[in-house]
């Protein structure tokens, strides 16, 4: 496996003194301005944060991943490595998409990350050439690390992330709990999170929140036009999230 460091620092373009690999881009569909990293494989990872996101963690994140339809799954590791940090994995499912919160406890199939919720927002879907996933990510800026300590994503800094993707489709695209096979490629980059912060964050969430699914329908990942994908299990910490709508 190749661990390709992303060397193409574009700090010169942004005027930043430090080498980092993200640029601002506004998504026309949602009106959200993301700080985005475009990987060499054509997968883009856009991040938007609340204006007060800091080293204390605990804040929500809007993540937008756009990928060529040939990609089976793509993911971001919020702590910059595969294991003991939250992962957000996305894949296409027909004309819809699925976003799955995971954590890996070794170099094998990551499990569902019980303390995280990925809620699909407007700006999510798949067509003949690409899939695009826009999610409100809750529980991804603070987590428990390998030593059992609380780790935080410093929303005021330039932060090292890792990505992974595979061209092989996941085993059960309709299920947020689907298993999938190992990556074809992994890489790392430096993301300017300070520049990802905006006072418009609450407005962006409000304007792009999808209607709740009808009562009694628990898992909506299978319903193409109700692309709300809560985590399936209840950790007790986030009771009442979209999973129960
Ligand atoms: C079935 C799923 C997966 C399997 C079997 C798997 C397996 C592995 C293995 C064997 C390595 C090499 C470890 C070494 O070099 O010693 C590795 C590295 C890596 N994997 Fe995975 N992986 C999976 C899913 C993922 C996912 C979903 C992500 C992130 C979104 C990811 C991110 C990485 C990264 C960044 C590395 C580089 C080393 C590190 O950061 O720890 N992997 N993986
Ligand atoms: C950030 O601001 C929001 C909205 O004003 C507030 O709800 C939240 O508690 C603040 N978070 C932190 C970590 O200060
Ligand atoms: C397919 O989706 C991508 C990503 O959202 C978008 O850029 C592209 O314009 C879409 N193509 C068509 C034909 O709508």
From TrEMBL:
Annotated keywords: Signal
Keyword set includes Signal: yes
Pfam family for this entry, one: CDH-cyt
UniProt keyword rRNA-binding present: no
Range of residues in the leader sequence: 1-19
Stored PANTHER family: CELLOBIOSE DEHYDROGENASE CYTOCHROME DOMAIN-CONTAINING PROTEIN, DEHYDROGENASE, PUTATIVE (AFU_ORTHOLOGUE AFUA_8G05805)-RELATED
Protein name in UniProt: Cellobiose dehydrogenase-like cytochrome domain-containing protein
Species whose genome carries this gene: Monosporascus ibericus
High-level lineage: Eukaryota, Fungi, Dikarya, Ascomycota, Pezizomycotina
């Amino acid at each position: 496996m190749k661990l390709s460091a992303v060397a193409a620092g574009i700090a010169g373009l942004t005027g930043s003194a430090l080498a980092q690999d993200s640029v601002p881009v506004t998504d026309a569909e949602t009106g959200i301005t993301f700080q985005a990293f475009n990987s060499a494989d054509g997968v883009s990872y856009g991040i938007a944060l609340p204006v007060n996101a800091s080293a204390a963690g605990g804040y929500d994140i809007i993540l937008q991943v756009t990928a060529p339809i040939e990609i089976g799954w793509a993911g971001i590791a919020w702590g910059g490595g595969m294991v003991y940090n939250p992962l957000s994995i996305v894949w296409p499912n027909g004309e819809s998409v699925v976003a799955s919160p995971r954590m890996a406890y070794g170099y094998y199939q990551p499990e569902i990350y019980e303390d995280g919720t990925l809620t699909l927002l407007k700006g999510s879907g798949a067509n003949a050439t690409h899939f695009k996933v826009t999610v409100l990510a809750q529980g991804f800026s603070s987590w428990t690390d390998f030593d059992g300590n609380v780790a935080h994503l410093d929303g005021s800094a330039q932060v090292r992330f890792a990505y992974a993707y595979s061209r092989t489709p996941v085993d059960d695209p309709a299920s947020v709990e689907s298993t999938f096979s190992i990556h074809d490629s992994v890489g790392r980059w430096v993301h300017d999170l300070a520049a990802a912060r905006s006072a418009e964050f609450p407005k962006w969430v409000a304007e792009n929140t999808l209607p709740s699914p009808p009562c009694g329908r628990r898992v909506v990942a299978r319903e193409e036009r109700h692309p709300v994908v809560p985590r399936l299990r209840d950790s007790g910490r986030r009771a009442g999230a979209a999973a129960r709508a």
